[in-house]
Specification:
The complex is a heterodimer.
Chain A: H1 3-14, H2 19-43, H3 47-50, E1 52-53, H4 60-68, H5 73-85, H6 88-105, H7 119-145, E2 154-157, E3 166-169, H8 173-218
Antiparallel strand pairs in A: 1-3, 2-3
Chain B: H1 3-14, H2 19-43, E1 52-53, H3 60-68, H4 73-85, H5 87-108, H6 118-123, H7 131-157, E2 166-169, E3 178-181, H8 185-261
Antiparallel strand pairs in B: 1-3, 2-3
Classes of the chains: A mainly alpha, B mainly alpha.
Subunit structure (chain B): A connexon is composed of a hexamer of connexins.
GO cellular component, one term (chain B): connexin complex
Keywords (chain B): Cell junction, Cell membrane, Gap junction, Hearing, Membrane, Transmembrane, Transmembrane helix
């Protein structure tokens, strides 16, 4: 079980997406998943070992690290990637349900099970709203947990058993900050793509609905 | 999910590339990605552990390392490779869109569709012309820009492409100017120069491909113009012939009418 599972999942979703949805999948693959695996993971690999405090008191370093990093950036990043990809499963499940129903009753209920109309449209819109919501939640979480998106070189810590206020130094703060900004930028890009897709679908189907009613009235 | 996944994604684009594009892709995978994964990552693997400063002051080493290496070479190369590979996705998306349109035409039973079945559409290789030419040329242009930007960023951040053995650091909390020693500076310099050289080769390949595509475009245009001129002349000749025939016919008609009346 690894990121390959997520990659296969997203490839499955790609089949039932709109054009903007496919761009979203490509952005998630190339700029988030791939960057995470080949670059970001290694930066945070030894963050605990390289976290150094100006004190020999045993336990002080551990306690200070735990205080300043309740959940590591990289774990939060991984959680965000998983949560943000999961709503797309709703669409896959709905299409599978449609196909199963047709098979079970041996009847053609839908013109095409994978076409985004009717109930599948609602599911698709809900998945888009969930994706956007989760992105925003994680960005806010990052902001609140770490007081903005900055990573300082030095943090001052005075938690027991540290005897007084000690200086603790974070390893590679600049590199971590660069990748954090990269994460925020790609997150925002994905939010914009999701909102565009939402507006596009709502607009397209409202026009279709309006035209259908207009034709009916004329008849 | 790793570089192998990128290989799968870009492998599909290979089918619709020019020959120079295929060479570029090969150079990218063998001389850049593979070298990065099997060699360069090991060389930079212990970079912070073996970065040693001549002081016992806690925190001084961390701070000096962060000051001299705001972003590690390895990460910069990984980002460069990802950004440089991304424009090829534009071409892949355009091809997928065209295939989708052809499949739709085929399913509607369009008479214009010249394919016998869906498999043929799936396996078809599109020629680089029309809107696909613009997408392809655009993607090469973006590739060039990304390569140049990253090379400049590298040069700017590290003051050239050499890795020094010794760096002098006086950032707080270092008590005074301390000597800090980089691990494996020569090996790192060798790999840096190698990656820069291959980057330059890729830039040259992209420029060559761009020139090739532009030349092909202008040649095709002049051929079309030549063909349409010939056709125009041919049509003119046909018109004058028809006019002459009409005149002859009308003359002979008049004669017969006159003949009848008389």
């Amino acid at each position: 079980m690894s990121w390959a599972f997520l990659r296969d999942l997203l490839s499955g979703v790609n089949k039932y997406s709109t054009g903007i949805g496919r761009i979203w999948v490509a952005v998630v693959f190339m700029f988030r998943l791939l960057v995470y695996v080949v670059a970001a993971e290694n930066i945070w690999k030894h963050e605990h070992d390289e976290f150094e405090c100006n004190i020999k008191q045993p336990g002080c370093e551990n306690v200070c690290f735990d205080h300043f990093f309740p959940v590591s950036h990289i774990r939060l990043w991984a959680l965000q990637l998983i949560m943000v990809s999961t709503p797309s499963l709703l669409v896959v499940f709905h299409v599978a349900y449609r196909e199963n129903r047709e098979k079970h009753h041996n009847q053609k209920f839908y013109r095409k099970p994978g076409k985004i109309d009717g109930g599948l449209l609602c599911t698709y819109l809900i998945s888009l709203i969930l994706k956007t919501g989760l992105e925003i939640v994680f960005l806010v979480l990052f902001y609140k947990l770490y007081n903005g998106f900055k990573i300082p070189r030095l943090v001052k810590c005075d938690i027991n058993p540290c005897p007084n206020t000690v200086d603790c130094y974070i390893s590679k703060p600049t590199e971590k900050m660069i990748f954090l900004y990269f994460l925020v930028a790609t997150s925002c890009l994905c939010i914009i793509l999701n909102l565009s897709e939402l507006s596009y679908l709502i607009f397209k189907y409202s026009i279709k609905c309006y035209l259908k009613r207009h034709m009916k009235k004329q008849q | 999910m790793d570089w192998g996944a990128l290989h799968t994604i870009l492998g599909g684009v290979n089918k619709h590339s020019t020959s120079i594009g295929k060479i570029w892709l090969t150079v990218l995978f063998i001389f850049r990605i593979m070298i990065l994964v099997v060699a360069a990552e090991r060389v930079w693997g212990d970079e912070q552990d073996d970065f040693v400063c001549n002081t016992l002051q806690p925190g001084c080493r961390n701070v000096c390392y962060d000051h001299f290496f705001p972003i590690s070479h390895i990460r910069l190369w990984a980002l460069q490779l990802i950004f440089v590979s991304t424009p090829a996705l534009l071409v892949a998306m355009h091809v997928a869109y065209r295939k989708h349109e052809k499949k739709r035409q085929f399913r509607k039973g369009d008479q214009k569709c010249e394919y016998k079945d869906i498999e043929e559409i799936r396996k078809q290789r599109f020629r680089i012309e029309g809107s696909l030419w613009w997408t392809y040329t655009g993607s090469i242009f973006f590739r060039l820009i990304f390569e140049a930007v990253f090379m400049y960023a590298f040069y700017f951040m590290y003051d050239g492409f050499r890795m020094p053995r010794l760096m002098k650091c006086n950032a707080w909390p270092c008590p005074n100017t301390v000597d800090c020693f980089v691990s494996r500076p020569t090996e790192k310099t060798v790999f840096t120069i190698f990656m820069i050289a291959v980057s330059s080769i890729c830039i040259l390949l992209n420029v060559a491909e761009l020139c090739y595509l532009l030349t092909k475009f202008f040649l095709r245009r002049s051929k079309k113009a030549g063909n349409s001129k010939q056709q125009h002349n041919h049509e003119n000749k046909e018109e004058t012939k028809q006019n002459e025939m009409n005149e002859l016919i009308s003359d002979s008609c008049q004669n017969t009418v006159i003949g009848f009346t008389s």
